[in-house]
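1st attempt posting a full record on here, be nice pls
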Amino acid sequence: MRSNIFKGLTIVILILGLIGGIVLGFQIPSVNYNTLSSEFNFGLMIGSWIGTAILSFIFYGVYSILLYLEQLGAGDENITVNTSSYQNVNDNNSKNNKSEEKADSSSWKCPICGKVNQNYVGTCGCGTTKPVSNTLEKDVWECPNCHSKNNYSDSSECPKCHWKP
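the predicted structure (as tokens):
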């Protein structure tokens, strides 16, 4: 409905611009200094028509955009969208996907939402940052003989009892 206002304004601008250009041509005549006579000012008329055309294209563009938005349903206050059913379906799908997803060596699992992300992703979609993995904890092993905690990066045998795995 609002697009019709801009369509009407475009037509009014075109008509007034065309008529106004002709009137300006007569009202502000060009002066020829050699003969001291006044003539019709074509330059002013053409300039006003060009300005009118540019302004009309702008208003017609706004009219076209508003018409397209009205066809999509924008601006209708009676339209209500029920997103609760979509959210329930989306929640069920995400729960099913979380249980099926397993983190491998090239990915990490978010501790908050359970989404499996690639290693190059630093922040999960839920906003949780990638947990910092402690490589020492992965390499720590307990000696079955003396029960001391050892690190593979130090040596492959227990430094306390010299047991080799």
